[in-house]
Known about the structure:
By secondary structure, the protein is of the alpha+beta class.
Amino acid sequence: MSDSNTAGARHDWPLYEVFVRGKRGLNHVHVGSLHAADDQMALHHARDLYTRRNEGVSIWVVRASAIAASSPDEKDPFFAPSGDKVYRHPTFYDIPESVPHM
């Protein structure tokens, strides 16, 4: 296969979003995007690209086409229903200092 055919094939690879959890982190954080032929390749490329300094302990790769997201244009109506449910917010509770990560 020639280089031009390989480049064309790479252009058709799906886009993946990459999330990394750092050694001191509790959550995975979005760090960027990449194209890969399959999930395994995406994991390997994500490791090589986004954890060069051994800062990660876990990587998630998700095909961008599988992500459903709310629209920033609709933020007010989309999030408005939670505003009238004050009991969902921990403002009425004292959290003891012995409870970590709150």
